[in-house]
Amino acid sequence: MAANGIDQADLPPFVDTVPYAPEEIRRLLDEGCAPYESVAL
């Protein structure tokens, strides 16, 4: 976010951030969440 000039204070209060996205993605996949590519839009 910092590379894009966005500070955490700029986000709405209901938005959470994670320190390392690849680790969070792996955690969610391990919990059974569907990968984004498999979501039908």
Secondary-structure blueprint of this entry?
Blueprint: H1 21-30
Order of helices and strands: H
Largest sheet: none
What is the gyration radius calculated from CA atoms? 13 Å
Mean pLDDT: 87
Count structural domains: 1
Count of discrete alpha- or pi-helical segments spanning 4 or more residues: 1
In quaternary terms, these chains amount to single chain
Q: What's the helical proportion of residues? A: 10-25%
The poorly predicted ranges are: none
C-alpha termini separation: 26 Å
The portion of residues forming beta strands comes to: under 5%
Beta strand count: 0
Shape: elongated
Structural class: mainly alpha
How is this structure best described in words?
- The chain has 41 residues and is mostly helical.
- It has one domain (2-33).
- It is built from 1 helix and no strands.
- The longest helix is centred in the middle third of the chain and has 10 residues, at 21-30.
